[in-house]
Write a structure and sequence with these properties.
- By secondary structure, this protein is of the alpha+beta class.
- The chain has two domains: 176 residues, Jelly Rolls, CATH 2.60.120.620; 41 residues, DNA Excision Repair, Uvrb, Chain A (Irregular).
- The protein has six helices and 17 strands.
- The strands form four sheets. Strands 1, 2, 4, 5, 6, 10, 14 and 17 form an eight-stranded antiparallel β-sheet that branches.
- The longest helix has 21 residues.
- It is globular, with a radius of gyration of 18 Å.
Length: 226
């Protein structure tokens, strides 16, 4: 499931992130890549422990906690420490790759990369190219969103960032280990949750809504690993 998440960051948070990035200490993005990804990766990344990285990931994690859509779609169990990257100039792209199945945080915690997330920090008119393309059952799908918006997609997907030919593409990225490992099961739960919300908005707390809520939670109970 590929899902756009509007307004994960507020406009004020985006402005603050951009201020922090103006003088940020960028490093070679290949330092965090696996053996296959290093052959196709050419971008820059903030050091994990720099002040700008710390501040931006704090804003992003707060956005995840308050956004009902991302919580419903991803059902987070663990979240890999968000990182910040940029594309442009002599470091303009990240070719086709699949993310490592397991990532390790700075303290050694293992995070299974069920769901990938990119939070855009630059608006589409600030750069040419730089489209995130994700392969799914319907072919390649391209994503290039306004600053502050995010996209979720399966960590199992082959994806890439196309070459940036003008300006700089700025983004924050991270992975989520979901309580529900299967993308298909997460999609069924998400669709049911969204339908229940619409049903309640239209008809209130009916007997049918209560019954379907029970079905949702019983499926989650059956599939979830907490």
């Amino acid at each position: 499931m590929l899902l756009q998440i509007p307004d994960l960051l507020t406009p004020d948070q985006v402005r603050e992130a951009r201020r922090l990035l103006a003088d940020a200490p960028w490093a070679d993005g290949r330092d965090s890549a696996g053996p296959q990804a290093r052959t196709v990766k050419l971008n820059q990344q903030l050091p994990h422990d720099c002040d700008a990285a710390r501040a931006i990931r704090s804003m992003v994690l707060a956005g995840v906690e308050r956004h009902p859509l991302i919580l419903s779609a991803a059902l987070p169990k663990k979240i890999f420490t968000p990182r910040v990257n940029r594309y442009g100039g002599d470091t303009p792209f990240y070719g086709e790759h699949v993310d490592n199945a397991i990532r390790f945080t700075a303290d050694g915690t293992r995070v299974r990369t069920d769901v990938s997330c990119t939070v855009f920090l630059a608006d589409p008119d600030e750069y040419d190219g730089g489209e995130l393309t994700v392969q799914d059952t319907y072919g390649n799908r391209g994503v290039k969103l306004p600053a502050g918006h995010a996209v979720l997609y399966p960590g199992t997907s082959i994806h890439q960032v196309t070459p940036v030919t003008r300006g700089w593409r700025l983004a924050c990225f991270f992975w989520i280990e979901s309580m529900v490992r299967s993308d298909e099961q997460r999609r069924l739960l998400f669709d049911l949750d969204m339908s229940l919300m619409r049903l309640r908005d239209r008809h209130g707390e009916t007997d049918e809504a209560v019954s379907l809520t029970g079905t949702y939670h019983n499926l989650l109970r059956m599939w979830a690993d907490t």
